Amino acid sequence: MWPHGGISQVRGRSQTLKVNYRTSHQIREAADRLLPKSLRDVDGQEERRSGTVSVFNGPEPEVAMFKDAGAEISGVGEWIAHALNDGIEPSEIGVFVRDHGQMDRARAAVKEAGQEGRVLTEPGQDAGPVISVGTMHLAKGLEFKAVAVMACDDEVLPLQERVDTVADEVELDDVYETERQLLYVACTRGRDRLFVSGIGPASEFLADLQRQRAK
Known about the structure:
six-stranded parallel beta sheet; two-stranded parallel ribbon; 30% helix
């Protein structure tokens, strides 16, 4: 086929360039630090995650640790208010937490910003003209201009209840991997702005979001 088109010398392996149209370069780069450089599927095939590029830029994601829940609620509420003042509509903002145990903090942060929030109850749900509030499990498939992922506390992410039930190191690795993937999915729901927070010392995963990729 190629020789017939005038191309006679094709050698070596090619690499597919993956283009991300949904998430800014800054958010994608930060979220990528949560996952390994390659992933293995159920058949044992390994796929490199490098080579993805985003087609637009945005502000650097913000990662914050607060002294207590009240301070975090105020901080996230202020961040939401700034997004609204910059012209982002309430329907374009999502607030996510690890599970229902942290949902009160998310609702309080939305209220702190003077807004109404609707708690998502099923995948792909449209919250309408208000701010979406939900667990990380329900974030998949959704898109927002601005996303806050809050209550990423120590023993919440990874969830201590899951860690306590592991029988061996293999299971522990699986728990950490799936918990990282949950945070990755929530973070990449944001198109332009991302705010990730927790109560100090907070989840160990936040350090990965903050660190600079090795050159």
